Amino acid sequence: MRITKIDYHFSKLRYQPDFMHFTDEEFQLIKEHTVLRSYKKGQILFDEGDERQRFYILTKGLVRLERYDESATYYYYDYVNANTLFPMAGIFEAQAYAYTAQAMTDIDTFYLPVSFYEKLARNNSEQLIALIHKISKVVEMHELRIQIGLTSSAFDRVKQNLFILKEELGVPTEDGHICIPYPITLKELAVNSGTTRETAGQVIKQLRDSGLLDYRKKQFTFCKTAVTPALRDANE
């Protein structure tokens, strides 16, 4: 029996938290309402203010969620990688997307109707609890980012945001280090840290000279001894 690309990728979602508590019958119904599509780097999946019609689940690549104020002086950046349902903002209530989603690499993604997923989730208590846990973790991470944003030292903000990216996007390498296998520019890091590109570059140089990370072709690799300072402090 030949397994299609859609069947292969969709089967991997069965035991992801966003789907694992649905019954087999419900999961099959979700599959019947789901479409697999490819986007090129730089393409927009949806814009802030668009009608909230679809959930997305990446199978390959990286998406950046972004929002600007009217003067374009305030930025919000967040990232989504594979096998995660998004966007979660406004689930069960919002009529419009709260931010814009842009493909930062070539991506493959499933999408399905928001109304259909939410209808099934409302009637499945275990899946609702899983969604609550997921949203709780999102809130916890945003609280940490607010805490970092209040840090007076720009150098510390850059360092802590770097290590948050490590926790969210990093994957282990064969030699025990952690690599972010997606391009992250110094400008993005600076925006997330509320500072300049020059300051972000100075922090990268300092960490590189200390042997804690490497930065080549816009990709970060963290040494196995590099501990995430923000999360370490939060647990003390």
TrEMBL record:
<dbReference type="Pfam" id="PF13545">
    <property type="entry name" value="HTH_Crp_2"/>
</dbReference>
<dbReference type="InterPro" id="IPR050397">
    <property type="entry name" value="Env_Response_Regulators"/>
</dbReference>
<dbReference type="GO" id="GO:0003700">
    <property type="term" value="F:DNA-binding transcription factor activity"/>
</dbReference>
<dbReference type="GO" id="GO:0005829">
    <property type="term" value="C:cytosol"/>
</dbReference>
<dbReference type="InterPro" id="IPR000595">
    <property type="entry name" value="cNMP-bd_dom"/>
</dbReference>
<dbReference type="InterPro" id="IPR018490">
    <property type="entry name" value="cNMP-bd_dom_sf"/>
</dbReference>
<dbReference type="InterPro" id="IPR014710">
    <property type="entry name" value="RmlC-like_jellyroll"/>
</dbReference>
<feature type="domain" description="HTH crp-type">
    <location>
        <begin position="152"/>
        <end position="226"/>
    </location>
</feature>
<keyword id="KW-0805">Transcription regulation</keyword>
<dbReference type="Pfam" id="PF00027">
    <property type="entry name" value="cNMP_binding"/>
</dbReference>
<keyword id="KW-0804">Transcription</keyword>
<dbReference type="GO" id="GO:0003677">
    <property type="term" value="F:DNA binding"/>
</dbReference>
<keyword id="KW-0238">DNA-binding</keyword>
<protein>
    <submittedName>
        <fullName>Cyclic nucleotide-binding protein</fullName>
    </submittedName>
</protein>
<dbReference type="InterPro" id="IPR036388">
    <property type="entry name" value="WH-like_DNA-bd_sf"/>
</dbReference>
<feature type="domain" description="Cyclic nucleotide-binding">
    <location>
        <begin position="18"/>
        <end position="120"/>
    </location>
</feature>
<dbReference type="InterPro" id="IPR012318">
    <property type="entry name" value="HTH_CRP"/>
</dbReference>
<dbReference type="InterPro" id="IPR036390">
    <property type="entry name" value="WH_DNA-bd_sf"/>
</dbReference>
